[in-house]
Amino acid sequence: MTITVYGTAASGNCHKVKIVLDVTGRAYVWRETDIMKAETRTREFLRLNPNGKVPVVVLEDGAALAESNAILWYFGEGTPLIPSDRLRRARMLQWMFFEQYTHEPAIAVARFIRVFQQRVDDPRLPELLTRGHRALTVMEQHLAQHAFFPGEHMSLADLALFAYTHRADEGGFDLAPFPAVRAWLDRCRALAGVTEMPAP
Amino acid sequence: MTITVYGTAASGNCHKVKIVLDVTGRAYVWRETDIMKAETRTREFLRLNPNGKVPVVVLEDGAALAESNAILWYFGEGTPLIPSDRLRRARMLQWMFFEQYTHEPAIAVARFIRVFQQRVDDPRLPELLTRGHRALTVMEQHLAQHAFFPGEHMSLADLALFAYTHRADEGGFDLAPFPAVRAWLDRCRALAGVTEMPAP
Question: Which residues 61-120 on chain B approach chain A with CB closer than 8 angstroms?
């Protein structure tokens, strides 16, 4: 059985899965799943992921795996995308948890409100912009000293952070004050298999 | 140099670190850090974690590591707390990302507002209660079929989810409708080194 991805093409969390599969050269079928039509809340979908979220991958043997960064880990194992050094491996996970806890809930949610819900005057946006700028500042500080996350070689943490950062403008974020972030995005784009996320 | 933990004893994310160090039998020094007095925003602290959050551990060689679940990973390596099977390892991470993305932002944040900020009438609480109940329901469904997360043996995902679940009452959550969750909490408590989080 071919790997099947249940995902929304214009979702960064889903686009991460496309990127890791393309970068590692795996064959897969993409089943476009529309979150705005509640296709993640059907009984069939909830059997794959009781938490009702995309992305989900169904592996060759029929096992389902959810949470974008856990999926990155699964396909990254055995490749140079996971550092062989123990501390670097933990630091890669540190940035992946930073991505899901600090970066995504600000930058991706602002984009979701503006682009998917088309509510550019939503009262939550100013606070999300402040928090998102803080996350970008933390990234800028790191990238002023290192080529990638966590260190000098591209890892799963780069793929995770690339997903919403390269479309941060759609969330209302201006990357002009973050030159190290912009240079890092270009270094990510140079890797075969890293593609731009399509517009919603 | 002894391992140093910068943490707030009554924070679940910090209590996870205490638990994994106690469970794996490591010596460490605990440096109590008061988030309510902005002790995570000092210049000295930001050198350890530019993201300005506890917990942070400083390892024997002086290297700093942040993000509670990345710290769990670091100390869990080479122990039975990380499954040896590739799919199970990814599923463990699935539950750890569920914890940080879906569980903690509802259950821990509700507790923070009620207990640390003492705002029991905060307008955000009803929505947080709804989301937290949904997370507990996802856990209950899993635990009706499995002893632990992700499967039949205790893993880092159990330690991560134990931290805020066993104090969910302080966030306004009633665990009475979740018998499988309550039985699982008792199975976690049976492991040497797993302790209750102190009151704030």
Answer: 63, 65-71, 73-74, 77, 86-87, 89-91, 93-94, 96-98, 100-102, 104-105
The tens-digit pLDDT sequence of chain A (200 residues) is: 899 999 999 999 999 999 999 999 999 999 999 998 999 999 999 999 999 999 999 999 999 999 999 999 999 999 999 999 999 999 999 999 999 999 999 999 999 999 999 999 999 999 999 999 999 999 999 999 999 999 999 999 999 999 999 999 999 999 999 999 999 999 999 999 999 999 88
Q: Which residues of chain A neighbour B157 with C-beta distances below 8 Å?
A: none
What is the residue whose two structure tokens read 């390596």?
B77
The CATH code for residues B86-189 is 1.20.1050.10
* Two tokens, residue A48: 């794959």
Please give the class, per CATH, of domain B3-76.
Answer: alpha beta
Which residue of chain B comes nearest to A65, CA vs CA? B91
Tell me the domain boundaries of chain A. Answer: 3-76, 86-189
Residues A174/A181, Cβ–Cβ less than 8 Å? no
What letter represents residue A162's amino acid? F
Q: What is the DSSP letter of A168?
A: G
Give the minimum alpha-carbon distance from A75 to chain B in angstroms, rounded to a whole number: 9
ipTM for the assembly = 0.98
Distance of CA A53 to the CA centre of its chain: 14
Residue B65 and residue A73: Cβ atoms within 8 Å?
no
